[in-house]
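This section describes the prediction task in plain terms. A model, or a person checking by hand, is given the sequence of a single protein chain and must write out its three-dimensional structure as a string of C-alpha cells. No templates, partner chains or ligands are provided. The sample shown here is typical of the held-out split.
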Amino acid sequence: VQLQASGGGLVQAGGSLRLSCAASGRIFSSYAIAWFRQAPGKEREFVAAIIGSGGRTYYTESEKGRFIISRDNAKNTVYLQMNSLKPEDTAVYYCAAARDGNIYDRANRYDYWGQGTQVTVSS
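The expected answer:
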C-alpha cells in the first residue's frame, strides 16, 4: 500500500483545512487509517483514526469536536477535516495504515506511512 497525503497549507487561526490521504491497493477498505502529526522538535503524535468500514473513529481529547476523520473506500481516500485551527496545530501531518484493521494511538503499530503534508496556522 502506498499513501499520499495532501491538503496542507497556511491558514489563519480559527480557519479550516481538509487533508486527504489517497491510497493504492485493492484491500484499502480493510485497513485502519490514522493521522499523526509532528511539530519541529517534538515527537510524532496521534491525532485521529478510523477503521476500515468507517464505522468507528477515535480522536485525542484536544481534537475531539474540532477534527473529523472520514473515509470514502470507493475513492481509496481518508479525509481529516480540521476546524477552529490553532497555532499549536502547526505540524507536518502524516497518514498511516494498519494492516490488521485495528486502531492504535502508537506510531509503531502502523505498517505504511505517507510522506506528510505541512499545516501552518498563523496567529
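For orientation: The mean pLDDT is 95.
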